[in-house]
Amino acid sequence: MGSLGIVPDMSERRFRICPICEAACNLEVKLEGEHIIATTGDAADTFSGGHVCPKGLALPELHDDPARIRAPLVKRGGAHVAVSWDEAYAAIAAGLGGVRERHGNAALAVYMGNPTVHNFGLTLGFSEVVKALSPGQFYSAGSIDQLPKNLASMLMFGNGNAVPVPDIERTDCLVVIGANPIVSNGSLWVVPGFRRKLAALKARGGQMVVVDPRRSETAGVADLHLAVRPGTDAWLLAGLCARLIERGRRPELPARGIELLTDALATVRSAETRCGLSAGTIDALADRLMAARRPAVYGRVGTTLTRFGTLTSFLIECVNVLTGSLDRAGGALFPEQAYVAPPRRRVAQTFGRFTSRVRGYPEVMGELPVAGLAEEIETEGTGQIRGLVTIAGNPAVSTPDSDGMARALGQLEFMVSADIYLNETTRHADVILPGTSPFNDSHYDQFLGSMGYRNNARYSPPVLPLRDRPDEWRMMLGMAVAIREGRPGAPEELDAFEDEVVVAAIARHVGGDGVLRGRDPHEIFQAIGPACGMERLLDLGVRAGPWGDGFGSREGITLEDMATSPHGIDQGPLRPRLAEVVFNEDGEINLGPDAIIQDIERLRQEGTSDGLLLIGRRNIQTNNSWLHNLPALGAGPRRAILEMHVAAANARGIADGEEVCVASGAAEVRATVRLHAEGDPDTVVLPHGFSELSDASQPEQRRGPNSNRLAPADHIDGLSGTAALNAIPVEVTRLG
Ligand SMILES: Nc1nc2c(c(=O)[nH]1)N[C@H]1C(S)=C(S)[C@@H](COP(=O)(O)OP(=O)(O)OC[C@H]3O[C@@H](n4cnc5c(=O)[nH]c(N)nc54)[C@H](O)[C@@H]3O)O[C@H]1N2
Ligand SMILES: Nc1nc2c(c(=O)[nH]1)N[C@H]1C(S)=C(S)[C@@H](COP(=O)(O)OP(=O)(O)OC[C@H]3O[C@@H](n4cnc5c(=O)[nH]c(N)nc54)[C@H](O)[C@@H]3O)O[C@H]1N2
Ligand code: SF4
Ligand SMILES: [Mo]
After folding, report:
1. CATH number of the structural domain 609-734
2. Per-residue pLDDT, 335
3. Fewest beta carbons within 10 Å, which of 233, 250, 436, 508?
4. Which ligand is nearest to the CA of 618?
5. How much distance in Å is there from the Cα of 433 to the middle of ligand 2?
6. Is the pTM value of this prediction over 0.90?
7. CATH code for 159-337+576-603?
């Protein structure tokens, strides 16, 4: 203690981009030695400006959570026991190798979960595991999330990765459909501090319209809230597009297919009010969009996780095209990022190259819909999946027909998980490789980089050193070598593998048409900054990227520059760049692709359902299925609650706070009801991500009905096969 009784502040401050959600807030991390005391928002960050939410503040608890898996685990006699890394790799080699010997690689599959995209080591490394299992099947959380958006972009632009985001700093009319950015903090749109940006939009005279069956937190602060009927946004958007065309709007950008689209929309126009809004209301929305200087329309999981997810996503971009907002300042633009991946065959353009065995679901960008995974495991025959690797995913809770998924996982001959918790999914794994704490690894947002509300370059080095274990990048390489070689790899072998990956990446850059085209690969290899690790790939991609130094060929940044700029390097507002992202041969936007025209016919034939429809929602203190087990996030009122309109409840004699049975075509769950009097009266809402495991392994705060037990496996988007986890027909009854 100091002589005046003041405790000297021995703490130190470092910075780390939060890896939890898509807002990518930069955090200021306060430590004493190797003890993390607290995290706060980094007010000096050029991109996130100090925004932080309860989850970012709880990260020290994640770091210290005794339940977090810290050593490799192998299942012996039904229980998971800690083993050495070599023992774990040997078990993987023998287990997956055995499946391969008995049934071939086609019996192997990978499921990649959401946190993979928030973890740079996994983002770079998972593909090495996928290659080692090739030609096994690939599944990801994309098909319970954004795949319809990717497919819509592929059909429209020829590029599944070309996803425009609203230019929130310059638009004067933001239309949010099926998203709740005040709580989710944005998605496929990196927009930390949405509330503050909305306030600025309103202060400059702009407005926000929210389309959501529920009066969400975002709808609550909108200038106009339109409570659509769940799953019917395609009708609304079809009516909207038809009106814009009738009123003379035509694409201002190079585009084809408007006639085909116009004719198809005419066939559904008369039934547009199936969306639950009157023709007058749709007229008024069209008026609003036409009166705005530069409107921007945005849609998220409320639109993608429906039976018309791809069509809805497509029509959203049609509105942006017809209002003259696509690729224009203030409208919806395509962000750029610091890192460019090594150029490769255009995976971003593949759709239906192959189909799933059991139901014939088409592949989208190399992956099959996870809604079909359980039946691929359970249905006998050639190509039956018998070995599975899950990487940072919890399909037993996050995917439809969770009962079927849990049953299927139990039937696998061998399963490996890379994860940080023992949960509904990983308890089935024969081997679990432990992920790391976010404070022990470095961070770069490879997936989210091209979705920012502003262009920026940010990187976080590890806050604390990682000791006596590999990082997740190296862990992926270790798993890949074990699968490939049928035994654990020696450290020198992994070093050589890493070199190989770097050399291959350089070869692709040098052979591509970017800034490194034609350069000497050896010279580039030598010039990469970091001596080893995944940072080599990052330095390569940044220097080959739009703002990079091209390894000396121009002025620009390197990874070193990013590492020495803890508050990020701002690259300015979004700029028009359509020509760079459209991969269609003729360079035009396609407004009338066959798949979409046919899907409008499917929409026309769709029946209406009159009963209750179940949708999902998020809460600020949860993150999908896994973070709310931390004490700080589990605190407060119960969140796994069924929200129901009083009118629907009165009709069923249900009182506030009562226990009810929610039944769908797939299952029944019990839930406690909370009544309200807002939004669409026939919509009921239950958040996903809660656990029905009764054993002591799960903390109280994770317990609750698993809403995805109610989602039938065949309730999917007809085009992409993505699970329609919203708008599920249900009935709610009193218990007893
Ligand atoms: N009903 C309904 N269901 C939904 C949704 C919905 O809106 N409604 N949303 C869907 C969406 S958008 C998504 S993205 C999916 C998510 O679906 P999933 O990705 O399958 O599930 P998560 O709950 O994100 O589980 C992530 C897993 O990764 C682990 N993990 C966390 N961090 C790390 C790490 O750093 N390293 C490693 N190795 N493991 C880690 C966690 O312990 C957890 O087991 O859920 C979907 N499910
Ligand atoms: N706090 C928190 N933040 C998160 C997550 C989390 O679990 N918790 N998860 C992260 C992930 S993985 C993702 S993908 C994003 C998702 O980000 P968002 O897409 O913003 O997700 P939600 O907050 O679920 O908002 C979806 C909204 O759609 C509405 N909705 C449901 N069905 C329909 C429909 O048929 N039509 C319309 N128009 N609306 C509908 C719901 O009422 C809800 O308000 O959030 C991310 N951020
Ligand atoms: S909004 Fe919260 S969880 Fe998301 S990145 Fe920011 S601090 Fe992390
Ligand atoms: Mo997601």
Report:
1. 2.40.40.20
2. 98
3. 250
4. 2
5. 30
6. yes
7. 3.40.228.10
